[in-house]
Write a structure and sequence with these properties.
This protein has 157 residues and is of the alpha+beta class. The chain contains seven helices and five strands. α1 crosses α3 and α5 packs across α7.
Length: 157
């Protein structure tokens, strides 16, 4: 029965998995985390995130906006990996500027504020988020990693 409940909640959460919203609520309702959002059952957490990943993957690739698509997502209890691809071509100057912007402390801060801070389970379980960006020709631009250490660093003055 618990597995069926996980399936139903993970399908609901999967629609919002990119924004990491409602995952705390799902984990809490299923009893996968304690009051501090630390995992109490890693096996159930693994099942939960596997189902979220599988459900979300069915909608990929997905347009994030006019210039970026999401073409890959994987989540585990301690890690997530999201692939973004710019759909517009860059000349050498634009490519360098985009790489610099993606690697900036400001971008790191914005990702932390938008996606990491809002989910208690991430901080409680030292969750690591990796955002991988590539250009329209699938060439790597940057990888941005968020975890407790980079979160503290990004928000420091």
């Amino acid at each position: 029965m618990k597995k069926l409940l996980i399936i139903l909640v993970s399908m609901t959460v999967a629609g919002a998995a990119f924004a990491e919203s409602d995952i705390d609520k799902g984990l809490n309702e299923l009893g996968i985390v304690d009051d501090n959002y630390v995992y109490t059952d890693v096996e159930l957490a693994t099942t939960f995130f596997t189902m979220v990943t599988e459900t979300y993957a069915k909608s990929l690739p997905m347009s994030f906006n006019r210039f970026i698509e999401i073409n890959g997502l994987m989540m585990t209890p301690y890690h997530s990996y999201t692939n973004y691809r710019y759909t517009i071509p860059f000349d050498a100057e634009d490519r360098a500027m985009v790489k610099q912007d993606l690697a900036s402390k400001q971008n790191l801060r914005e990702i932390c504020e938008d996606y990491f801070i809002s989910e208690t389970f991430m901080k409680a379980n030292n969750f690591t988020m990796v955002y991988s960006y590539m250009d329209s020709d699938y060439r790597p631009l940057a990888k941005v990693t968020i975890n407790n250490a980079t979160y503290a660093s990004a928000l420091a003055p």
